[in-house]
Amino acid sequence: MKNMEFYKEKLKRFADVILKEPFPYWFGAIVLGILNVCLLAVSGEPWRITSYFAHWGAWVARAFGARPEFWAFYGERENAAALADGFLRDGGSVQNLGIIAGAMLAALLASQFRFRKIKSYKQVIGAVIGGFLMGYGARLSFGCNIGALFSGISSMSLHGWIFMAGMLAGAYLGSRLLIKFFLY
């Protein structure tokens, strides 16, 4: 009976660690690294995200009458195939949907999901401008911090390290602008 109580206590502690307490950053880094290697082994491509958002935009534009199949981006065979196949056949789009759902689930499990009142419309304007600049920059550099930095460094590419230097400089400058113009 004493053994059973010991195991119940250990199981409860394990459940608390998994479901209630935050994971250490090093654990998240190891899990993401392993998942990136698995994705590369299974699909033959490193992890990337923003290319698929470009496809989402093209599908929405097509719904409103645009002809994205004539855009230069969709002149490449891989992009043209993704455009023709649609959302559910685009593995990266389904993967992105999983990332969004997983982030939501993680926030729900950590009791951190909540709607917050907008404090200032200056913050909304700053968020929109920042989101636009991040998306535009990700498309110009052929990747976001996942494709250009994380997958670049893990695949031993020099461009990942160069991207990191630029990203750190941009984050420093962006945080200074944020504090100066949008927070107070």
TrEMBL record:
Membrane topology reported for the UniProt record: Multi-pass membrane protein
Transmembrane as UniProt keyword: yes
Protein name, per record: Uncharacterized protein
Alphabetically ordered keywords of this record: Cell inner membrane, Cell membrane, Membrane, Transmembrane, Transmembrane helix, Transport
Record keyword Flavoprotein present: no
Pfam families from the UniProt entry: Sulf_transp
InterPro entries: Sulf_transp_TsuA/YedE
Transmembrane segments: 23-42, 97-115, 127-152, 158-179
Cellular compartments per GO CC: plasma membrane
Family under the similarity heading: Belongs to the TsuA/YedE (TC 9.B.102) family.
Domain of life: Bacteria
Compartments, record wording: Cell inner membrane
